[in-house]
Design the sequence.
């Protein structure tokens, strides 16, 4: 029996889902990891391959060279490109690593989509706070400031004045070097330092959606459109729904087309992507994020399976292996919602309480806790701490009321990190 190697950067809920999907394809599973003390993970797989640095493609490839891997894959955002490089060196790559390297630079994505004739916000790199006025004139205000290789809404800021733009630069320059995510401490291939150079994008005005896209044999297939009717002032997602409230079939088709056009323009093949789209009042659907090489995060794969019958994790594994598409079921005949609950402050998690009370609510289908004791939670980024899948609601007000009720029931005990 051949082995699939899953590369792990940090602990993640996705690992167990991928292990189950790989075993469902009939393969052994070993995890490639830096030294760890995780007996539960070790017991859940067929073996561990310990390497000093999972971000070093040459070292990881050398550790696996004599093991004849069927595939080497990951869903850890920060190492998708380096893991694809490992797969290339071992002759089991399905999508070129250079494509993933490109998609990890949001400004490069903006340039590539513009060259393909696809709409996008005005964008500029922001490397010097003294140039705030020039950047504001180039991009326009209001604008969004974010890390150029960021994820999970890390330190995303909306600014309306030149002074706010300058202050956003100072904030990101102070906080990103302290961020535990290793991606912000690695210079990008073009020499860009993500701790000192940030992305500024013109503001888009319209509802936000997500589309997971599967690319098989050169054909891009959108799974479904997921609406995001509740987003807070930090750009953190509080609730999603599939299908979206009140979305006409024509608009849904346009949103799906924007997502698939972007994925194909970037050169993605034999892989998947999680795409974020804003349906701008003037420009129509505009792609704002392309998270290439992985399906949606958190419990969103469960949302999609409930709503459509499509298991995007199993689809991602199949694409990485080059095996036939997995069997698909039927989705529920009613809208499915997804509530995200966050810790109210930063700190090291001691315990989460109240999830059983949330599970007893009549609309709740499942409660999935992503975080674990000992994990440091930060209010700088979206950490989907507790995820609640729901059905039986009528509209966005019902969904908001459910989120409020669940938030009151769940309690995070934190200590200073």
Sequence:
């Amino acid at each position: 029996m051949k082995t699939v190697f899953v590369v792990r950067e940090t602990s993640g809920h996705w690992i167990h889902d991928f292990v189950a999907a790989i075993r469902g394809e009939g393969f052994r599973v070993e995890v490639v990891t830096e030294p760890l003390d995780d007996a539960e993970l070790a017991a859940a797989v067929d073996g561990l391959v310990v390497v000093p640095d999972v971000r070093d493609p040459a070292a990881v490839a050398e550790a696996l060279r004599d093991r004849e891997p069927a595939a080497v894959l990951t869903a850890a955002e920060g190492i998708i490109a380096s893991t694809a490089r490992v797969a290339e060196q071992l002759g089991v790559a399905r999508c070129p690593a250079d494509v993933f390297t490109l998609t990890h630079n949001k400004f490069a994505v903006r340039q590539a989509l513009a060259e393909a004739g696809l709409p996008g916000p005005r964008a500029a790199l922001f490397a010097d706070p003294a140039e705030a006025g020039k950047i504001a004139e180039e991009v326009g205000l209001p604008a969004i400031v974010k890390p150029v290789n960021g994820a999970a809404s890390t330190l995303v800021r909306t600014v309306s004045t030149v002074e706010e733009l300058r202050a956003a630069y100072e904030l990101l320059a102070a906080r990103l070097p302290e961020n535990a995510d290793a991606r912000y401490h690695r210079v990008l291939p073009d020499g860009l330092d993500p701790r000192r150079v940030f992305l500024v994008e013109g503001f888009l005005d319209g509802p936000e959606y997500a589309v997971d896209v599967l690319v098989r044999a050169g054909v891009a297939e959108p799974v479904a459109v997921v609406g995001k009717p509740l987003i807070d002032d930090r750009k953190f997602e509080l609730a999603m729904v599939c299908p979206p409230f009140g979305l006409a079939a024509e608009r849904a088709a346009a949103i799906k087309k924007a997502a698939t056009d972007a994925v194909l323009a970037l050169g993605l093949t034999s892989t998947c992507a999680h795409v974020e789209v804003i349906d701008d009042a003037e420009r129509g659907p505009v792609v704002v994020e392309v998270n290439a090489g992985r399906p949606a995060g958190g419990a969103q794969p469960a949302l999609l399976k409930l709503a459509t019958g499509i298991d995007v994790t199993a689809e991602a594994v199949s694409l990485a292996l080059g095996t036939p598409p997995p069997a698909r079921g039927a989705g529920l005949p009613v809208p499915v919602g997804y509530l995200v609950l966050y810790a109210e402050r930063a700190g090291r998690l001691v315990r989460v309480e109240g999830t059983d009370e949330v599970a007893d609510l009549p609309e709740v289908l499942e409660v999935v806790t992503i975080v674990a004791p000992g994990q440091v939670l930060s209010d700088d980024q979206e950490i989907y701490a507790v995820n609640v899948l729901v059905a039986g609601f009528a509209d966005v007000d019902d969904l908001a009321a459910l989120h409020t009720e669940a938030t009151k029931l769940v309690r995070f005990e934190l200590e200073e990190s």
